[in-house]
């Protein structure tokens, strides 16, 4: 990498070299039985160059031909992508714990035994099909640039999701475990999945209309995608965000606080720097319903004359290889401030309503405008404060700038979800269609 940087500096104005080495192991159980044990290695180097205020990009999985990689980056300059930003001079980073060495000693046998234990405990109490996916991830990132920056991080993840599927359907009750190290699933984890499944075994029909709707932590991404879009510097720059000019204004219910917190070592994989070597920070996005900040990578910070917020990440909804992706503005470490109500207490707040336990079509609808319309897979029916069954065909629809004004209650603890940690959230006056 050092040699590549020096070679590229001879013909370019500014240079960044990013390397990734990632080792992933997967264990899959289907219908209560071991289906797959697999491992994969993802490694490579990507090069970003700036020359004559134009951005070039190239990547390789094999660094034998450094000159060829540089030539590819130079050829990509023909695309005419403007880049007037500079790479950061990053030193004296905050120390965060993102790696646990015990992950190196975690064997596939241990993970399989944990999955078998879960299958046994769940099957004793439920007749549904049990699927489990476990993943062990160990990676190392290093970034060098022509400003003298040389930063590196090791990251470890243990991920497990357990699902109980309803008969003749792919709808299921799920819950996630995420940690830097292996952690056995606690009893309350098993209890939630089993009890929720058993209580919703009966198929019911209800008339549609406006009612209370409870989003589980695993499904809140439906709403958060819209918030992330609206608060992205890219959306603001392109004038597609509906909340331009709203910094300091109340846009949601006062009980709602959303923070991007990559420095929080208690929840998820902490990061001291983003994928552009910019130091990360705790960044309030929404605080007590008030819009506090947009988030920036290097490029859009320069375009908008703002300071980069450390939110330049290689991410995409369906990407397979991070090494091939250019960084852009992204929220990767979200945290919703918990409320004061336990999950049973949230249920007791509902005379009649539904639980969004799974969603279909979360990416559809007018995301820039904040609209959503999703199928429920499954949707659970709440009657008189208790789960009374599940809906066969149902949808919920709305606009986040209306729905997020009608928060009834927020759970008093958080759980892993897509790109962060969230509580269950109960909303009123949400449109439900059912047949």
Q: Which key features would you list for this structure?
A:
ten-stranded mixed β-sheet; six-stranded antiparallel β-sheet; PmbA/TldD fold; alpha+beta; 435 residues; globular; 9 helices
Brief rundown of the structure:
This protein has 435 residues and is of the alpha+beta class.
Number of strands: 24
- Supply the helix-strand structural class: alpha+beta
% residues in beta strands: 35-45%
Roughly how much helix do the residues carry, as a percent range?
10-25%
Instruction: Figure out the total of helices.
Output: 9
Number of domains: 2
- What is the average of the pLDDT values? 94
Report the uncertain regions: none
Q: What gross morphology would you assign? A: globular
Q: Radius of gyration, rounded?
A: 23 Å
For the sheet with most strands, the description reads:
10 strands, mixed
Could you give the distance between the termini? 59 Å
């Amino acid at each position: 990498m050092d040699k590549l940087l020096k070679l590229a500096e001879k013909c370019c104005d500014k240079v960044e070299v990013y390397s990734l080495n990632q080792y992933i192991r997967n264990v899959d159980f289907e219908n209560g039985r071991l289906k797959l044990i697999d491992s994969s290695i993802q490694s490579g180097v990507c090069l970003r160059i700036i020359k004559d205020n134009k951005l070039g990009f190239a990547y390789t999985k094999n660094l034998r031909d450094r000159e060829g990689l540089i030539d590819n980056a130079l050829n990509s300059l023909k695309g005419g992508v403007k880049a007037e930003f500079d790479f950061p001079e990053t030193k004296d980073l905050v120390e965060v714990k993102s790696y646990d060495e015990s992950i190196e000693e975690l064997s596939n046998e241990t993970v399989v035994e944990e999955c078998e234990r879960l299958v046994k405990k769940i099957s004793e109490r439920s007749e549904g099909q049990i699927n489990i996916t476990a993943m062990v991830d160990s990676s190392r990132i290093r970034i060098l640039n022509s400003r003298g920056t040389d930063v590196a991080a090791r990251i470890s993840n243990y991920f497990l999701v357990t699902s109980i599927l309803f008969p003749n359907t792919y709808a299921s009750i799920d819950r996630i475990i995420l940690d830097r190290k292996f952690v056995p699933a606690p009893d309350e984890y098993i209890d939630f999945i089993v009890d929720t499944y058993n209580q919703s075994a009966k198929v019911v029909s209800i008339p549609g209309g406006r009612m209370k709707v409870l989003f589980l932590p695993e499904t809140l991404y439906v709403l958060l995608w819209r918030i992330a879009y609206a608060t992205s510097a890219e959306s603001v720059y392109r004038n597609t965000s509906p909340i331009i000019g709203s910094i300091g204004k109340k846009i949601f219910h006062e009980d709602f606080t959303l923070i991007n917190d990559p420095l929080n070592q208690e929840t998820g994989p902490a990061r001291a720097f983003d994928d552009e070597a910019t130091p990360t920070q705790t960044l309030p996005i929404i605080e007590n319903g008030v819009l506090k900040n947009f988030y920036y990578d290097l490029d859009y910070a320069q375009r908008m004359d703002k300071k980069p917020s450390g939110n330049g990440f290689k991410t995409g909804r369906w990407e397979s290889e991070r090494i091939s992706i250019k960084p852009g503005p992204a929220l990767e470490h979200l945290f919703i401030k918990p409320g004061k109500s336990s999950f049973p207490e949230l249920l007791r707040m509902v005379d009649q309503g539904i639980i969004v336990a799974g969603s279909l079509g979360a990416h559809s609808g007018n995301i820039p405008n904040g609209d959503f319309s999703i199928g429920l897979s499954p949707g659970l029916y709440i009657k008189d404060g208790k789960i009374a069954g599940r809906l066969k065909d149902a949808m919920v629809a709305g606009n986040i700038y209306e729905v997020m004004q009608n928060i009834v209650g927020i759970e008093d603890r958080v759980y892993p979800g897509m790109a962060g940690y969230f509580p269950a959230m109960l909303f009123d006056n949400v449109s439900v269609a059912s047949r």
